[in-house]
Amino acid sequence: MTDGATYTAQEIIVVAGSKIIEDKKIVFVGTGLPMVATLLAKRTHAPGLIPVFEAGAMGPPLNAGLPISVGDSKTFTDASYVKGLNAAFEMTQRGYADFGFIGGAEVDMFGNLNSTMIGDYPGGYQKPAVRLPGSGGASDMAASCERTILIVPHDKRKFKEKLSYVTSPGHLDGTPNARYNTGLQGKGPYRLISTKGIFDFEEKTKRMRLISVFPGETVESIQAATGFELLVAADVKLFAPPTREEIRLIREEIDPNGVFVKKSS
Amino acid sequence: MVWTGLSPDAAREALVNKDKSMRDKRMALKEAVALFIKDGDNIGIGGFVNIRQPVAITHEMVRHGFKNLTLSFQSAGLAGDYLAGAMMLDESRFSIKRIELAYWAHESFGLSPMFRYLAERGKIEMEDWSNYNMSARFKAGAMGLPFLPTRSPLAGDVPSSNRTKIIICPFTRRKIALVPASNPNVAIIHVTAADKYGNCIIRGTDATCPEIAMASAHTIVTCEQLVDHEVIASHPKDVGIPFPAVDAVIHVPFGAYPGACRRHYYFNGDHIRRFHAAAAPMQKGGASGALKAYYDEYIYSIDTFGDFIKKFPADKLMADQAAESYNCQRPA
To answer: Which domains, and CATH codes, for chain A?
Structure first.
């Protein structure tokens, strides 16, 4: 499978993310690496993918290149439908988004994400140790997209037993029907892609389960970098390294300026 | 505390008593800011992150000086930064009491050192929502309703960070969130084009600008292009904000710069980073010199936003215009 391409941790996230997206589906795309993965999917196996951006563009071809914001002018050119934030989220509530593609600063074993604050909640809410940007549209996507794909760089401090703050609800506490019982729609987290591997959420317990390891990693090395006990699939796969062509597309055509995929030094 | 801007009844009353005539609303930005914004007001900020943010209006607000403002927005970038930076320099001259927000950062340009400075020192009251929550709150305000039912926030910590009420829907018997209307005292909005009466055309994302304008008691609009009423009236369905919702119209080319404005200019990332670099030392516990120098050079020592734009080399402005014309190629 391998053709000897060298790649960075961000590049393998992008390649893995693009492969999870299915063709001809509506994908609600969050800012950052999800945008790069979406463009890669569109240029490889999913030309019929329909991106939606929360600032209000549906179905742009993205011919002007990588947007650097989810409200970027590039998301509006030749889009099929252009409104504002309310329209994008109303469509999502209605069920028009097959996938939501979001990131976060911290994740727990049930795929709940934090992008609000590091510190003590609620006691330290008004004076957090580190103030992060806030939900943006992530908590809405987590609440209403049919399935969500999460991207979190793998680090013991980011894969935590208990989050400082739950911004975007995943499988909550993992109890049966937890999402439905709180009024949420959609099936919740479907896959998580880290810098070390790909995970799903085991059907019964809704706990994060390793299904695919990236080259150079093992089940043990990934568990060692995780702040909670991972489930491990019976047939963990070795994820094929990115091909030269995939890396060329990312570096030369999709993100040539290194806006989201940092250049290796 | 339920209403941090106008209550729905007070918002209704403000409109009833307002002169809604179709009159020439052009005035100087200085005049508009002094006339409509008061200390303690709740300000609804238009745009989205660094797209079509009302940057020129925030510069004028900083020059004027205001105290104890509440800022309401979904996702902010530069508009929030300019107001917050002024507070970092001198709280007796400019201060923010509270923010109701979904997001304050810069996507690919990183976090906001101004927001981190104020938040991590406990200098502002925060109420976290999501982009849809804030947009629905403005929409409820624009619809003349006290709340809208929404499918978020229902779980996690966002509901307990704000005034959401989670109820059992009387029809489905499932849980549903109710988010309270936001009716700001003043909306500050930059649009693509407007006529002198305040009919506005918005290209690219509407963001939540129409809802914020319709929800607010007063709206100050800056526009890239000021056009004859007949030009706008020939395509009435293109009007995003109708004239009775607008109180002041100011023609300010580059009014969202160094952010972006569809069909006009793309981001000046170098300047956004430069502004952030000036605030970073204070955020890390250091001195205010760099930020003070930035504000002296770009805001306090000059009189109008046109003078701010003159500080950029013409070839840089043209390059940012050229980048945007590549984004949306169309015949002249």
So the answer is: 9-254 (3.40.1080.10)
